[in-house]
Write a structure and sequence with these properties.
The chain is 29% helix and 28% strand. The protein has 735 residues and is an alpha+beta fold. A hairpin with a 2-residue loop joins strand 26 and strand 27. The chain starts with a helix and ends in a 21-residue tail after the last strand.
C-alpha cells in the first residue's frame, strides 16, 4: 500500500490529494480501513517521505522543495546534509533547529550560492544517537555530563535519581531521555574515573557503542564447548595430521586462524595448502555466539588490548591453530604453476596438527641466513625457502595484471602497563609478512572464483572503480609534482595508477602520492554480488582466511559447509535473503572498528607529543589547505602549521597547483617539501598536534588598549584576544 501511495503522489498531474480523497481512491472509506489508512499516511509523514501543503494536500517532500538526509556536523557548529549522490546542502549553525550530528532530518532549501545550496532543518525525523560518553560535572543543583564528542556542545542534565553511583570526575555512558525543553539523561554505565589508566581508550570504545563483555547466553554456550576437538567428526574430514603444516604470525598473536603447507610436485608445480580454522563448526547459525558475532562484526585491535569478535575460549583456544594439538580446519589446496596460475584446487573439511608455531621475526631471520635458527628449525627450513620462491612468483603475477602497491607506512604506538605512550614506531613488514599475504590473497581469490562459477549465494569482498571526481582531484594534485595519468579518467585501469606509485619510488614525494591515491579509492566493502576488486586488479575476491576475527569469513565458511560439504541446495533461498543484510552490517562494523582504532591511535600520538613540546623534528608537507599545511614526521605523526604562524610573508592558497604562495617574496610551500618544525602544542582530548617552522619568527602583537565604560583595558594574547575585565562589566558577545 505504501508503494502504491508513493506511486500515485509521484504523478504530478494527479490533483485530488486530501486525506479523504486519497482514501476514496484506494477504497479505504470504511471506518476501520479509514483509520488504518490515516495511520499509514502518518507513518509516511513521520518518516519524512511525504508532507502536507498549507492546504492539507499530500505531496512527496521533493515536490514541495523539501529534502531528507543525515546531518554531518562540523565541530565548529555548521553541517552538511547529503540528499543524493550529487546533491548536498550546507546548514548554518543558526539553522540547525534542535538537530544533532548523525540525525536524519527534513530540510528546506533557502538559497543557492553558485553550485552550493544552503538549507535549514525543519524537523528531526530520527535521532542518530541516544547514548553519549562524557564526564560527570557538578552543577548548581543537579549534575550534568559534558560530552566528549566535539560536535556535541550541549550539556546533558542528570538528576540525582539517575546518577546510579556516578560521581563528578567519572567518565560515563549517558542516555538521553528527553530533548525538550532541555536535554535530560540517565547514566547507564560508569566507565571509571577520567584519570584511571585505560579509561581514555574505553571511553572511545563505548562512544561507538561497542560492548567489552559478552552476554551471559554467549558464555553459557561457550561453556558447553570442549577444549579439545570431538574425535567423532574426524571420519567426515580429510586427515592432514601427518602433513608438515606451520603457522606464521606476530610474536604476540594468540588467535592463530591460518596455517600453511607447501611442497613441490613432480611436474614442477607447487602444491599450496591454506588451512583455516573451522570456526563455523562451533559457531552455528542463529546461536547466541552467532548473533553476538554479527553484532560485533570484527575484532578491534587497540594499542593496549584486543576486543575480540569471539570469546577467548574459541579465539585463543579450540579455534586457534596452536602447535602440537589437533584442530578442525577448512583447507583450500591449490596446484600452482611456475607462472602463478592455479591449475586445480579443492576446498575440503580437514583436521590438522600444526608442527610449529613460527613468528614473522624468526622466519625473516631464517631467510636472511641466521645459522642458529636454521639449525633449530632444520626440519622446516627448506619449506620456508620454497615459500619465498612461490610468493615471489605470485607477487610478480599480481603486479603484472595491474594490482596497486600502495606501500603506505603504518605506525604502532607503544604503551606502558598504565597505557601511557612511550614511543611511536613504524610497523616493519619483512619477507615472511609478504609471503603470508600472497598466500592468503591467492586462497581468497580461488574460493571466490569457485563460488562465482557455481552461481550460489555467497558474500564477496568488493572494491569498486574510484569515483571520477576523486580521480580528477588526485590527478590535479600529482600533476604539479610531475606525474600524469595516462588515458581517460572515465576508464582508468589499476595498472595506470600503480605506474605512478612505481615512478615515485625513491623520491621525496612517494609517501605523499601513495597516501593521496589510497584516499581517492572507494572503501572496500562486502556484497552479495561479485563486483571485483579494483585495487587488487582481481575479478573474484572474498574473505576466507580470518573467521576468528571477521564475520564475513565465518559466513563464507558457512556457505562452504552448506553447499560444498553438506550439498544442501535447499538453503539457497535462505542465504539469498540473509546475505545482503549481513554484508551491510559487516561493512558498517568494519568502518566503525577502523574509526575506533584510528581515534585511539590519534589520541595516543597526541598524548605522546604532549611530552615533546618545544622539540624539533624533520618532516614532509603531506597536505595543504587554505588555513596552512600539515607536516608528517617519519613515524607518521602529523601536525598543523597554521598559516598565521608563517610570519615572513602573507601567504595565499593556490588551489590549482596545491601550494601556498608568499605575496611579497613569492616563496612557496608545496607537497612533499622537507621542513623542520617545532612542536608548539598537542591536545590529547582533541587528538591534534600543532607545529611551527623552525627559524620562523613568532608573530608578536602589542596588546591593544580598548575602552569599556570609559576604562582602559588591555587584551591578553595568551587568552586569544579575550578581555581582562572587571566582573561588573557586561559579557561581550562573540561575533
Amino acid at each position: 500500500m505504501k508503494e502504491k501511495i508513493l506511486e500515485l503522489l509521484e504523478d504530478q498531474t494527479y490533483t485530488r490529494r486530501k486525506i479523504n480523497e486519497l482514501a476514496e481512491y484506494f477504497h479505504m472509506t470504511g471506518t476501520q480501513d479509514y483509520i488504518a489508512f490515516i495511520k499509514l499516511m502518518n507513518e509516511l509523514e513521520d518518516e519524512g517521505i511525504i508532507m502536507r501543503s498549507k492546504y492539507n494536500d499530500y505531496y512527496l517532500i521533493e515536490q514541495l522543495h523539501f529534502y531528507s538526509g543525515t546531518l554531518e556536523m562540523n565541530k565548529k557548529g555548521f553541517g552538511f546534509v547529503r540528499v543524493s549522490e550529487d546533491q548536498e546542502f550546507y546548514i548554518n549553525e543558526s539553522h540547525m533547529k534542535d538537530a544533532f550530528d548523525k540525525d536524519t532530518v527534513l530540510i528546506e532549501k533557502i538559497r543557492s550560492h553558485g553550485n552550493k545550496e544552503e538549507g535549514r532543518v525543519v524537523k528531526v525525523i530520527k535521532r542518530g544517537k541516544m547514548r553519549y560518553v562524557g564526564e560527570v560535572k557538578r552543577g548548581k543543583r543537579d549534575y550534568f555530563v559534558k560530552v566528549d564528542d566535539a560536535k556535541f556542545e550541549k550539556m546533558i542534565l542528570v538528576d540525582s535519581a539517575h546518577m546510579h553511583g556516578a560521581m563528578p570526575g567519572h567518565k560515563v555512558v549517558v542516555e538521553i531521555k528527553t530533548f525538550k525543553p532541555q536535554l535530560k539523561g540517565d547514566i547507564i554505565k560508569v566507565i571509571g574515573h577520567h584519570n584511571d589508566p585505560g579509561v581514555d581508550i574505553l571511553s572511545i570504545v563505548h562512544a561507538h557503542d561497542v560492548d567489552i563483555d559478552f552476554p551471559e547466553a554467549v558464555y553459557d554456550q561457550v561453556e558447553k564447548i570442549a577444549d579439545e576437538i570431538d574425535p567423532s567428526d574426524i571420519v567426515n574430514r580429510v586427515d592432514l595430521r601427518n602433513e608438515m603444516i606451520v603457522t606464521i604470525d606476530g610474536d604476540d598473536a594468540k588467535d592463530l586462524d591460518d596455517a600453511i603447507s607447501l611442497k613441490k610436485l613432480k611436474n614442477g608445480h607447487y602444491q599450496l595448502g591454506v588451512h583455516i580454522a573451522d570456526v563455523s563448526f562451533y559457531v552455528t547459525e542463529s546461536s547466541p555466539l552467532d548473533k553476538e558475532a554479527i553484532k560485533r562484526g570484527t575484532s578491534i585491535y587497540l594499542v593496549d588490548r584486543v576486543i575480540p569478535m569471539l570469546p577467548h575460549k574459541l579465539s585463543n583456544g579450540i579455534c586457534s591453530l596452536n602447535p602440537n594439538v589437533d584442530r578442525y580446519t577448512i583447507s583450500c589446496i591449490m596446484e600452482i604453476d611456475k607462472n602463478g596460475q592455479v591449475m586445480s584446487h579443492e576446498i575440503i573439511p580437514s583436521v590438522i596438527h600444526s608442527s610449529y608455531r613460527m613468528t614473522y621475526n624468526n622466519v625473516n631471520k631464517i631467510l636472511d641466513g641466521d645459522k642458529d635458527l636454521q639449525r633449530e628449525y632444520g626440519e622446516v627450513v627448506p619449506m620456508f625457502f620454497l615459500m619465498q620462491e612461490l610468493a615471489d612468483i605470485l607477487r610478480k603475477q599480481r603486479f603484472e595484471r595491474g594490482a596497486i602497491d600502495f606501500d603506505v607506512d603504518e605506525a604502532k604506538v607503544l604503551v606502558d602497563d598504565k597505557g601511557k605512550p612511550t614511543d611511536v614506531v613504524l610497523r616493519t613488514r619483512g619477507i615472511s609478512d609478504k609471503i603470508i599475504e600472497e598466500f592468503m590473497l591467492k586462497a581468497n581469490e580461488t574460493v571466490a572464483q569457485h563460488f562465482k562459477w557455481m552461481e550460489l549465494p555467497f558474500i564477496y569482498r568488493v572494491h569498486e572503480h574510484p569515483k571520477l571526481k576523486k580521480l580528477q582531484q588526485f590527478a590535479a594534485i600529482v600533476k604539479p609534482l610531475g606525474y600524469t595519468i595516462k588515458g581517460s579518467l572515465d576508464h582508468v585501469y589499476p595498472n595506470e595508477l600503480n605506474a605512478i606509485i612505481e615512478a615515485s619510488k625513491g623520491t621525496e614525494e612517494h609517501t605523499v602520492i601513495s597516501t593521496l591515491l589510497l584516499r581517492c579509492m572507494q572503501k572496500a566493502r562486502y556484497d552479495r554480488q561479485c563486483l571485483g576488486h579494483f585495487g587488487l586488479a582481481d575479478e573474484y575476491y572474498t574473505h576466507f582466511t580470518s573467521p576468528i576475527r571477521r564475520y564475513p569469513d565465518l559466513l563464507v565458511h558457512r556457505c562452504i559447509r552448506t553447499f560444498l560439504f553438506q550439498h544442501d541446495i535447499e538453503k539457497t533461498a535462505h542465504f539469498e535473503e540473509v546475505i545482503p543484510e549481513l554484508a551491510e552490517q559487516s561493512s558498517f562494523r568494519e568502518r566503525e572498528s577502523i574509526q575506533i582504532e584510528r581515534e585511539v591511535d590519534d589520541m595516543k600520538m597526541a598524548e605522546y607529543m604532549e611530552g615533546h613540546i618545544g622539540e624539533e623534528f624533520e618532516g614532509i608537507i603531506s597536505s595543504i589547505t587554505q588555513f596552512g599545511f600539515f607536516v608528517e614526521l617519519p613515524n607518521t605523526i602529523d601536525g598543523l602549521v597554521h598559516i598565521t604562524d608563517l610570519t615572513d610573508d602573507f601567504y595565499h592558497y593556490d588551489e590549482k597547483n596545491i601550494m601556498l604562495v608568499g605575496e611579497r617574496t613569492g616563496k612557496t610551500f608545496k607537497l612533499s617539501n622537507k621542513v623542520k618544525v617545532k612542536v608548539i602544542g598537542a591536545n590529547k582530548k582533541e587528538r591534534t598536534v600543532d607545529f611551527e617552522l623552525v627559524g620562523m619568527k613568532p608573530r608578536v602583537k602589542k596588546p591593544k588598549t580598548i575602552h569599556l565604560n570609559d576604562k582602559k583595558v588591555k587584551t591578553n594574547r595568551k587568552k586569544k584576544g579575550k578581555i581582562n575585565k572587571p566582573r561588573s562589566f557586561a559579557r561581550k558577545k562573540r561575533r
